[in-house]
């Protein structure tokens, strides 16, 4: 083997590799915030945000906390998100490996038997040839002169980081959905209990009205009106029974496994529900704390890198293939002196005419980046809207809940007075029915308002990027 020539070839190949440091990617610039610099409601001066509060500290009710823990272990969407991260990581490793030459070692034997007299220089008898080889070589290594492979590596990295951020966003969504699902079950349990109590009360009123009707005191209209309230309450019992069962089914799907009955039986809003106050921070904090925004920006960076790869396709590409080793007709002499062999096969590809394919690919890459810019800006606008809605709810639900509580109390007093006036013969039974229906409606509204207030606390926590840390 002519070692000096092979060494010069190898040195030249790696010199080209060292020179391949340029890239045709556009310089990345983060788009400006397409939203106001301050929240439309609430105080945004706190430098902390919801992400600084771990989900275990925020969702401190024992049953809810246990359900969330079970969901993080068993939810299938979260498993898929984690596997997507593993897949993206492996794809990035493949893209990164393309920057380095692959070195392969091969060994082989070639045997050939020729009949006698086949060639004029051959002896009269048949001949068997044997050849042994052992080589170390580089196959089809692209010298990245214009950064095409480097840009594909960058694109793979950004795609991996976007997938990783998406996994965090999936977890945040799951945590909030389990918490909201548990609260929905609690509210429907309370509504079912209210409907049962109301139906029992109305059944008693109906029995009294029936006896009064049989005695000739009440009219048939009084009896029919009493019956309508009973039937309405019975229908509500069936409705809320169905909703409770559906709530359990929804929670089971989110959790991903069978839920112990003791975690569901005590679900009610009639306890001291109070989530920690969530500091809003500043709008710009969302850029580094909301996983969906982080994922959108990494996707944008991947599109930016892809433009570099599309631009590099217009320029020549150089591919290197080379081997060095030993060849011998005898296995025992394979590594003896004078058996060295080497080959070096560089090739260059110069684009001349492709029917506009390269230009079309570049146009697609540029348009994809514009789309990803719009998606990134939309993610920021959506986040800003969600946080502003949460802050608006935080500022108003307290007053609404107080008013709903006072309204339910007033309706309770009105119902008690109506019953007293009816029993005293001052009013007819219609006044009692009207007061009873108004009380029932006020109590239902109070429960749904409690649920809405707690859900908005969860929504604000989620909107600020909370639910990822433990």
From TrEMBL:
One Pfam family of this chain: OEP
Subcellular location: Cell outer membrane
GO cellular component: cell outer membrane
Family matches, as Gene3D superfamilies: Outer membrane efflux proteins (OEP)
Membrane-topology annotation of the record: Lipid-anchor
Keywords for this protein: Lipoprotein, Membrane, Palmitate, Signal, Transmembrane, Transmembrane beta strand
Main localization (coarse): membrane
GO molecular function, one term: efflux transmembrane transporter activity
Keyword Ubl conjugation tagged: no
Signal peptide per UniProt: 1-20
Record carries keyword Membrane: yes
Family: Belongs to the outer membrane factor (OMF) (TC 1.B.17) family.
NCBIfam families, A to Z: outer_NodT
PANTHER family with a match to the protein in the record: CATION EFFLUX SYSTEM PROTEIN CUSC, OUTER MEMBRANE CATION EFFLUX PROTEIN
Protein name: RND transporter
Organism: Rahnella sikkimica
């Amino acid at each position: 083997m002519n070692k000096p020539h092979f060494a010069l070839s190898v040195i030249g190949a790696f010199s080209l590799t060292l020179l391949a440091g340029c890239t045709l990617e556009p310089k990345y610039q983060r788009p400006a915030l397409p939203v106001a610099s301050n929240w439309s409601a609430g105080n945004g001066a706190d430098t902390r945000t919801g992400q600084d509060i771990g989900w275990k500290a925020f969702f401190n009710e024992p049953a809810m906390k246990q359900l969330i823990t079970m969901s993080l272990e068993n939810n299938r969407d979260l498993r898929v998100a984690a596997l997507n991260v593993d897949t993206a990581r492996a794809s990035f490793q493949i893209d990164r490996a393309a920057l380095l030459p692959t070195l392969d070692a091969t060994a082989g034997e070639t045997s050939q038997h020729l009949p006698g007299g086949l060639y004029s220089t051959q002896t009269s008898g048949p001949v068997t040839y044997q050849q042994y080889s052992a080589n170390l070589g580089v196959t089809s290594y692209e010298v990245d002169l214009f950064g095409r492979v480097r840009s594909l590596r960058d694109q793979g990295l950004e795609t991996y980081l976007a997938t990783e951020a998406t996994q965090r966003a999936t977890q945040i969504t799951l945590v909030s959905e389990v918490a909201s699902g548990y609260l929905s079950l609690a509210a429907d349990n309370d509504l079912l209990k209210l409907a049962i109590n109301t139906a029992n009360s109305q059944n008693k009123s109906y029995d009294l009205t029936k006896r009064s009707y049989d005695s000739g005191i009440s009219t048939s209209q009084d009896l029919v009106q009493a019956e309508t309230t009973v039937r309405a309450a019975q229908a509500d019992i069936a409705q809320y029974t169905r909703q409770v069962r559906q709530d359990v089914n929804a929670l089971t799907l989110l959790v991903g496994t069978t839920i112990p009955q003791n975690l569901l039986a005590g679900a009610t809003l009639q306890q001291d529900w109070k989530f920690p106050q969530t500091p809003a921070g500043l709008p710009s904090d969302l850029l580094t704390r909301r996983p969906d925004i982080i994922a959108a920006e990494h996707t944008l960076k991947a599109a930016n890198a892809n433009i570099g790869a599309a631009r590099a396709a217009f320029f020549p590409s150089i591919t290197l293939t080379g081997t060095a080793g030993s060849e011998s007709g005898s296995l025992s002499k394979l590594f003896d002196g004078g058996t060295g062999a080497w080959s070096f096969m560089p090739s260059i590809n110069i684009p001349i005419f492709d029917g506009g394919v390269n230009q079309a690919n570049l146009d697609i890459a540029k348009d994809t980046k514009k789309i990803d810019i719009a998606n990134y800006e939309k993610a920021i606008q959506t986040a800003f809207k969600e946080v502003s809605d949460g802050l608006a709810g935080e500022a108003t639900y307290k007053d609404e809940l107080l008013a709903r509580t006072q309204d339910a109390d007033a309706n309770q007093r009105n119902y008690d007075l109506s019953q007293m006036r009816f029993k005293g013969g001052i009013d007819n039974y219609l006044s009692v029915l009207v007061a009873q229906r108004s009380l029932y409606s006020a109590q239902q509204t109070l429960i749904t308002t409690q649920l809405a207030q707690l859900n908005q606390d969860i929504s604000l926590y989620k909107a600020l990027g909370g639910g990822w840390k433990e």
